[in-house]
Design brief:
about 400 residues; alpha/beta; Rossmann fold; 4-stranded parallel β-sheet; 17 helices; Diaminopropionate ammonia-lyase; pyridoxal phosphate; TrpB-like_PALP; diaminopropionate ammonia-lyase activity; pyridoxal phosphate binding
């Protein structure tokens, strides 16, 4: 499925609150917070010139989030950042003054952290970030996982000392259960999706993601003309689209949101012109994107800042993983998990379809920006799909 944005608010300025959440000042704050993380480093921006020539575009750059903060996905930027922000705010209320991130491990802040429990639902990656953030500050974490989350991903969350709470059903069921249990226990929900009356914290999560856009704009020789970003509930797509809209204004790139065909809640929302919940059907290999209800906050931004919406099939996602692992000629290899290469899957599908290519105005001058949103967060599944271990592909990259 491929749709151009025909929403009445398309190309309108972002809501002022959203522009503030995803703007330059917010990005500066995120980068300052990151400077206090011991293992923080900018992730690489990888150029794929041979693939670009093969599909007839000027450049392809992939922001490789497989290296982010030791967690293997872009989610490392969001959940932990929100946890830290919320702890400092709680400490400020307790102490009766503003508390700076430089005081995060102070004797005054630690007792506040010990009194807090942060909860969330997850497909895997967001829960790791919230659990890591809680461990960093000395708080507790309760992570709700649905039946489709692999044992490897659950174990990766548990390594940070989080309480794991299993939920029968889908991701959306785990979102509802986390909210219910957290309210009953006085815990703080740090969700990466929003619903009526709950937007500020998901906004903080999205704000954390802006760091990868800021880094990419510094790393690229020229701003991109086209962006393809995968979408679950819409958070990463909205964060990238929103920041580019604020930062570049009328020069912003053509932005395409890419959904799994089996979990296309953002595409169906775009088609309906309003947020819709889709039926939970057959599972998708793109496990981190298997969401059935869009984030209201993300949709409000994408309705204005996205240009097109499309779906990719299971084979498209698998092909993109393999393409990145075994690249054209001397392009560098990239380890991308099942959801990591979905933006590339969208690009390859659009570039090979004359109608989509024309609608998006992709040509020999186009400069494409993609995000590898996750590395091999389930190494066994990765090797099963790609036919080689993540370590073997990483070794090939270094050769």
């Amino acid at each position: 499925m491929f749709l151009l944005n025909n929403h009445p608010e398309y190309r309108q300025p972002l809501d002022p609150a959203d522009a503030e959440t995803l703007g330059v000042a917010a990005a500066n704050k995120v980068e300052r917070f990151l400077s206090f993380r011991e293992n923080h480093a900018e992730t690489p921006l990888v150029a794929l010139p041979r693939l670009a020539a093969e599909i007839g575009v000027s450049a392809i750059h992939v922001k490789d989030e497989a290296y982010r903060l030791g967690l293997g996905s872009f989610k490392a930027l969001g959940g932990a950042y929100a946890v830290i922000r919320l702890l400092l705010e709680e400490a400020g209320e307790s102490l009766g003054r503003a508390v700076d991130v430089s005081e995060l491990y102070s004797a005054e802040v630690r007792p506040v952290a010990c009194s807090m429990t942060f909860a969330c639902a997850t497909d895997g990656n967001h829960g790791r970030s919230v659990a890591q953030g809680a461990q960093l500050v000395g708080a507790k974490a309760a992570i709700f996982v649905h039946a489709g989350v692999s044992k490897e991903r659950v174990a990766a969350i548990a390594r940070f000392g989080a309480e794991i709470i299993g939920v029968d059903g889908s991701y959306d069921d785990s979102v509802r259960e986390s909210s219910r249990v957290a309210e009953a226990n006085g815990w703080t929900v740090v969700s990466d999706t929003s619903w009526p009356g709950y937007e500020r914290i998901p906004g903080l999560v999205m704000q954390g993601y802006v760091a990868l856009v800021r880094e990419s704009l510094r790393q690229m020789p020229e701003p991109p003309t086209h962006v393809f970003i995968q979408s679950g509930v819409g958070g990463i797509a909205a964060a990238v689209a929103g920041h580019l809209a604020v930062e570049l204004g009328a020069r912003r790139p053509t932005f395409t949101v890419v959904d799994p065909a089996r979990a296309a809640c953002i595409v169906e929302t775009a088609r309906a012109g309003r947020p819709v919940t889709i039926a939970h059907g057959e599972p998708t290999v793109m496990a981190m994107l298997e969401c059935n209800t869009p984030s209201l906050l993300a949709w409000r931004i994408l309705a204005r800042a996205a240009d097109a919406f499309m779906t990719v099939d299971e084979d498209d996602a698998i092909s993109a993983m393999r393409q990145l692992a075994d690249p054209v000629a001397d392009d560098p290899a990239i380890v991308a998990g099942e959801s990591g290469g979905v933006g590339l899957a969208g690009l390859l599908k659009a570039a090979s379809d004359p109608e989509m290519r024309a609608a998006l105005r992709i040509d020999g001058h186009s400069r494409i920006f993609l995000v590898n949103t996750e590395g091999a967060t389930d190494p066994g599944k990765y090797e099963e799909i790609v036919g080689a271990s993540p370590a073997a592909i990483a070794t090939k990259t270094r050769m």
